[in-house]
Amino acid sequence: MSSVKPGYEDKKSLTINGERLSVEGVVRVARNYEPVNVDPQAVERIKRSRDMLEELVAKEAVVYGITTGFGRFSEVKISRDDAIELQKNLIASHAAAVGDPLSEDVVRAALLLRLNALARGYSGVRPELVLLLAEMLNRQVTPVIPEQGSLGASGDLAPLSHLALVVTGQGEAYYNGERMSGKEALAAAGLKPLTLLEKEGLALINGTQIMTAIGSLAFFDANNLLKASMITSALTLEAQLAVPDAFDSLIAGVRPYGGHGYAAGVIRRLLEGSSLVGSDTHKVQDAYSLRCIPQVHGAAYDALQYVRGILDVEINSVNDNPMLFPDQGRVLSGGNFHGQPVAQAMDFLAIAVAELGSIAERRIERLVNPSLSGLPPFLTSEGGLNSGMMIAQYTAASLVSENKGLCHPASVDSIPSSANQEDHVSMGTTAARQARKVVDNAVRVIGIEYLVAAQAIDFRGSDLLGKGTAAAYKLLRGEVEFMNKDRLLHPMIEGACEIVASGRLVENVNRMVDLSK
User: Fold this and answer.
1) Is 394 a catalytic residue?
2) Active-site entry in 64, 175, 301, 473
3) Angle formed by the axes of helices 489-501 and 467-477, nearest 10°
4) For a tag site, which of 33, 214, 264, 285 has the least CB within 10 Å?
5) Which one-letter DSSP state was computed for residue 462?
6) Distance (Å, rounded) from C-alpha 165 to C-alpha 144?
């Protein structure tokens, strides 16, 4: 069976072996439709674990989820004749997720992550199942998965069951942008559904792939947002005629957090050649939202490094149960499906990103407040007749306030299930969904700062900007004009936010200034 969609042969493909997948690789497959293929060595490992499982079934060994029920029913032995029906019943009964469908990129990421975990060869599935997952990605068969219903242990059972339904020709899926039955979607893509054999249903749903998919994409966007926030904050520094001393390497050197040094260094490079910063010789120091950018943005940088480390491990891990170890001849039941590492990382991600938005909103306030900026009120020449950027700050404040509620940690909120057999859960998918929303909100706050700072720069002189900030200003002004008199503000905000969210701001400025170190 080919694992590349016709027409994709000219594209670079990602080889899946269970061990070397990166967040960036997840994004390329999930959003850019990069095709995948399965490493032949991974296929051999999968075959070995399947052979071991079939030997256990032939001997009628008592193994959780293969010859027993699930959860509280783990003490109930299932006959060999009923083992396949057990997998069918598992998927049907566990497909209980509710709410709006997860976005296409999240579902594609989850498919890829489940494929990658099964490729490690510890789950006892057939190679045919793994190759079908690869085909679904390459031919863009995207299961419809409701976003709510996971406790994060035993993994993402409910939402992943909706993924498994499509594998068997049930449920619903999108194909070529059209929502249809899973059976119709597979047929339209030239694929055939599988009847799940022993352990395969459990292997598809017993994992952290939904929370990790959401988290991987949220992290990628947050990493872009951090760099974008460095750029927009530098524009604000210039508009505020800020004192540059706070970004001196000597200050970073005596409190040597990696993030502090990174943020201060990026600001210095962005402002290189600026005639605005330091031009107010009467100022000794600035307010915290300006002076403490290295400390706050730097802390976000350090938090993101931690989150990346967790995701790098999780996306290349086996989080199935039970696991088969052919080399040792052992089948072990454990708790690798528990999402606590990811849950805590997602809560941390939400907090760090929310603070990027929080401090940016305070900078926006300083730009529109004449008593703090020395600029025209709300950055309009004819105040009263015009309101200028007044309500842009309102919107930013609303988003920041919403993020405060979303930062309540989900990872500390456990609730027992399965008659208290599963008596501690991670709520990791809730944490990831909250983090995703925080990132979306913060993108808009940074977009508003971008818009407002550029408006302020027009009152200072755009020809006086630094090397990096000049590139940022030019990009925005190529698409969003200076607001001389009041006009619809919503399209201006959306335009600035799109430049931030798409990565175009970081990409353009990075050509002039290295934002990576």
Assistant:
1) no
2) 64
3) 130
4) 285
5) G
6) 10
pLDDT in tens, 177-195: 999 999 999 999 999 999 9
Place of tokens 């594998």: 167
Q: What is the rounded distance in angstroms from the CA atom of residue 434 to the CA atom of residue 358? A: 16
* C-beta separation of 457 from 483 below 8 A: no
> Which residue matches tokens 């022993």?
198
* Residue-wise pLDDT tens digits, 397-456: 999 999 999 999 999 998 888 877 788 899 999 999 999 999 999 999 999 999 999 999
Q: Which CATH superfamily is domain 14-207 in?
A: Fumarase/aspartase (N-terminal domain) (1.10.275.10)
Q: CA–CA distance from 238 to each of 104, 268, 453, 459, 475 (Å)?
A: 40, 12, 9, 11, 17
| Closest by Cα among 51, 45, 47, 42 to 17 | 42
Tell the burial category of 311 from Cβ atoms under 10 Å away from its Cβ (0-12, 13-18, 19+). Answer: buried
Query: What fold, for 215-319+354-415+423-510?
Result: Fumarase C; Chain A, domain 2 (1.20.200)
Looking at the chain, the domain(s) classified CATH 1.20.200.10 span: 215-319+354-415+423-510
AA letter at 329: G
Q: Helices 258-270 and 209-239, interaxial angle, to 10°? A: 50
Judge contact between 165 and 157, C-beta under 8 A.
no
| Sign of the CA dihedral running 325, 66, 422, 410 | positive
